[in-house]
Design a protein that fits this description.
Length: about 100
């Protein structure tokens, strides 16, 4: 079973305090499901339609584990804390086997 990668790209941060509240809850919620944070921060370069806003790459054991983490009660609490504080694009992709 291939590993999976959760790729979250922030299109706009509207309220940094809400993003901080989300991060405080979201990180532990994802780690509880086996998340390994590979990269997070503002890109050093952005090309094509990319924006120089926060981006996060997280590795999971499988796509099922990534989806389980996203759908967990603890992560839903983090999303509630984020609310309308940011506009994000979140994708879960499988790695090459």
């Amino acid at each position: 079973m291939p590993k999976a990668y959760w790729i979250s790209v922030y299109r706009e941060i509207k309220d940094p305090a809400k993003v901080a509240a989300y991060a405080k809850l979201g990180g532990p919620a994802l780690v509880a499901h086996g998340a390994k944070f590979l990269a997070r921060g503002v890109p050093v370069a952005a090309y094509e339609a990319g924006l120089k806003e926060r981006a996060v790459v997280i590795e999971f054991e499988s796509a099922a584990k990534a989806i389980e983490a996203h759908d967990s009660a603890a992560y839903k609490e983090a999303l509630a804390a984020l609310g309308d504080g940011a506009v994000r694009d979140l994708r879960i992709v499988e790695g090459d086997a």
